[in-house]
Amino acid sequence: MTITRYIAVDLGDRRTGLAVADSLTRVASPWKVLEVPIEHEDGGRLIDEIARAIARDYPSARGLELVVGLPLHLDGRESERSKLAREFAQRLGAKLGLPVHLADERLTSKQADWAMGQSGLTHLQKKKRRDAIAAAALLQGFLNEESQASSTPPAHPNDVSEPDPGA
User: Fold this and answer.
1) pTM metric for this prediction
2) How many domains does the chain have?
3) What's the whole-number mean pLDDT along residues 102-115?
4) pLDDT of 149-161, one tens digit each?
5) What is the CATH number of the domain that holds 138?
6) Are 136 and 29 in contact (CB under 8 A)?
7) 164 lies in a domain?
């Protein structure tokens, strides 16, 4: 059995959260926060920092895949930041030679805030952890969606369903 390790990237203007999970446990965990503004060197410095972190903590890139957050409006439409995220994901994947998935990141920062709400952490402590926790929420959503998609049996080619007229 081949185990895939996923690394999620939750891009931020000043901080970028990273999270990890694998295809065996399917549980996402916050990993780290990189305090590198995305505008430095047009994102190149952040890409280099992510590459260094991965090389340091996961030296064997075999079975490694990236999941980059795709910022969408609440109604599902792409935002201005979606284009930036898509371009960043493509550049990161090319630099590392790894497959990259884009995943809906709507409300992941809110999920992180809710998770830390009663933690007893100070505002500064929460701020330093928020992005990695948001990355974990992003990755967990991706894993859940992927699991759902793979457990849905394919439609039988001869199975034709009529639309429900009462719907």
Assistant:
1) 0.78
2) 1
3) 66
4) 766 555 444 333 3
5) 3.30.420.140
6) yes
7) no
